[in-house]
Give the backbone structure.
Amino acid sequence: MPVITSLINLKGGVGKTTITLALAHFLAIEHQRRVLVIDLDPQTNATVCLIPETEWKQRDETGRTLYQLFADQVKGTQRFDTDQAIVRNVSNVGGGVQGLDLLPSSLQLIKIQDRITQLTDFDNYQRGPIFALRKALEGFLPYYDHVLIDCPPSLGIVTLNGLAISDSYLIPVVPDILSVLGIPPILDRVEHFARATRHNIRALGIVISKMRAQTILHNEMVNRLRDDFQARRFPMVFETIVPESARIAEAADVMSPVNTLQQKYGNGGPYEALSALSQEFLAHVTR
Ligand SMILES: Nc1ncnc2c1ncn2[C@@H]1O[C@H](COP(=O)(O)OP(=O)(O)OP(=O)(O)O)[C@@H](O)[C@H]1O
Ligand SMILES: [Mg+2]
C-alpha cells in the first residue's frame, strides 16, 4: 500500500499546493515512484498546474472530477468512476511524467461541501460521508507508492475525507508569527479526528517555505520552530527549507513545456532545495 500524506494548514498561501506538486514531481522523476496527487481544494490550483484548463473543464462537465464523487453522496447516485476520473501521466515536464497521476478537483466542490456537511454525523463518523474518498479509491491504492493530498485551507468535510485515508500529514508554514501560532490548532484537530475515526495519522513534520533568509523575523521564527520541536511541543521541522523564489512561483505554469526539473524549477537554489526536500521526505516515510 502507498504512503498517504495530506498537506495541511488552515492558513492560506503557505505553500501547500507548491510543495505537493514539487514532491510529486521529484518522487516520480528522480525516485521513480508511482504517485497519485489528490486535489481536494475547490480552488483547483494543483489540478490546473498538472493538466491544461481546457481538459479539466471537459472532465468537470462530464463527471470526471471529485465534484461527482461528493455529488453522488448528496444525490444518492453512483456516477463517479474512479478509473475514468484519474488522469494518468500528467504535468508539463517531458510531455507528461510516467507514473504521476491526478485525481482532479472542481470549483463546484464549494457548493456541494455545505450539503455533505449537513449529511455528516460529527458524533459518529461511521455514518457520514467521511469515507467516500476511501471507498472510491479501493482497489486503486495498491498501484501507487505515494499518495499526496493537497488540502484547502480548512478542515471541512472534504479535507476530512482526505485525512480519513491518510497515514501521515505535513504542515507547510511560512516562518512568520501567524503561521507559527496556527500550528497547535492543526495538531489538536487532526489528533481529535484520528481518535474519532480510530486510526493513526502521524505528524510527519513541518516544512518551512517561502523563506526570506535576509529577513530577521523569518530567521527568528525558524529558530523558534526548531526550539519548539526540541521541546517536543511541535513535530519535527524538516532540515530543508524552501526559499522564496520567483522560479518556484512560476513553475506552476503548465502551459509552457519543459524537459527537466531543472528547467521547471531553475538551476541551483530552488531546484536543489526541492530535490533535498523530497529526499528528506522519503527518508522519513520509509518504514
Ligand atoms: N517558495 C516559494 N517562493 C515564491 N513563491 C511561492 C513559493 N511557494 C509558493 N509560492 C507562491 O505563493 C502563493 C501561495 O502558494 P500555494 O498556492 O502553494 O499556497 P497554498 O498554501 O496552497 O495556498 P491555499 O491555501 O490558497 O491553497 C502562490 O502564488 C505560489 O506561487
Ligand atoms: Mg493550495
